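Progress against Task 2.4 (sequence-to-structure conversion) is shown through the following example record, which the project officer requested during the mid-term review.
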Amino acid sequence: MIPDVKVPKPLLDFLSSHHVATLATVSKDGVAHAATLYAFADEHLTFYFLTKETTGKYKNIQENSNVALVISDEHTLDTVQVEGVATEASELGFAETMAKFIEEYAKQGKWKELPINQIKEGHFKLFKVAPKWIRWTSFKEGENIIRFEHTF
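Structure tokens generated for the chain above:
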């Protein structure tokens, strides 16, 4: 949760309509790893994503919980960049947060289509990313407009 930070409604609107993100992690050997996944953000700018315990991202986060997320729109040329710490959400109300995650995709008819459902091995793991830094930028018409930026 972000204390004393006014999160602009247009940023929340952007995040509620854009769920495809790229997550960057680092292995214990220092090798960078990026994966595309579905994520959602709550009104406090906490981000959530699902993975399975057999994936590279899961193993990397166990070694180094610092991650980066990028959510973008190729048409408006807006990007949201996040640097933060990923933690398993199981001890943080797993059932409630998992239900919200599924609800986000079920209402769009996308739950069965999620790539995570194609990975047969391993149990689902829900992660939350608490941001240390976030920036929302628009690059439309050759400009670099920072619409929101905050360091926590």
